Amino acid sequence: MTIDYNKLKVRINLDNLRHNYQTFKGLCDRVIPVIKSDAYGHGLAEVSRALESEDMDTFGVGFVHEAVKLRRFGCTKRILALLGPVDDGDIQALWEHDLLAVISHMAQLRQVAEVAEKNGPLNICLKFDTGMRRLGFRSEDIPEVVAVLKQSKLTPVMASSHLASADVPEHEANVEAQAAIFQEMLDLLKEAGYDVEANLANSAGSLAFELCRMDSLRLGIAMYGGNPFHGTQREELGRELKPAMEVSAPVLQVHSLKKGESISYGWTYTAESDLEVAIIGVGYADNFSRSMSNVGQMNIKGYRVPIRGRVCMQMTAVDVTELMGEGLGVVPGDEAFLLGGPGPGTITPEDLAGWWGTISYEVFCLLGMNQREYI
What are phi and psi of 204, to 5 degrees? Predict the structure, then answer.
């Protein structure tokens, strides 16, 4: 459900999404925006509609029922369900809603082939495991896969695999090894008479590895402005990306904290000098992690302010002493940005994820569960 009991503002900049998409169009003619999990918290319907006019023909989602949901929103593009059918209802939906689904193991392939005998021809995507060790057929499975396909009404039109560590510059050899394995599997398919659209590259693979771009690439975190190479020697590869999500919460109260006084639950922070603190209307009930206690920062009036004490259910305290000293009065009703905000104190997805002890994917997915507005 959407969190509707707070005063958070989650703003989604659709122009930044389009900009990021077009950045990758310069790398490959066919870019598949991955909008699974409610578009990483940015909104399935809104993001798909914003991108439909951007010279694209395929969306990637997670489960089949999310693909059905997207189709019911009016999407007429090809929809790829990356997690494939899980149950009988999912399988029937492939025909009912004209969906392309990943097929990743023999039992699943045989089950879909059996239904195809009744429902008629169906295009599918074959998922190959080249080292990620989650979903997918291995090289030794291909003869059996081909044998089933030859006796069925199924036609593989796409083959996909996933890179395990393309965002780690030191793992370049691993990426190249996965690409080589994938190409061998594609060659075996071609020898069997199946010339498919091949996609291997994720955001990091697309930016750094030309050999992984192939026929199409899957654009995930980078489309939302997350730099997969943040903090590495390849960080510059993502310099043109623009974060699409900005999140703020209101200042509820501003007051003094005297030297020696402690604040919030457990008194985990004690003032070493006289301070001014602002109480912000956000907490862990709003998916702003308690792990930010005494660690994270917010942005008020373009300046970074540190969190003092524990993050509570719906309140968090920040130190605004320096702002007050600069004559930048902070009053109830002002905005405190958890993500984004004006410069020079803009908070990037990677900044927030670092304080949080997680990755930008989780930041987007969790904060995006609050009420959103679109720019």
Answer: -65, -45
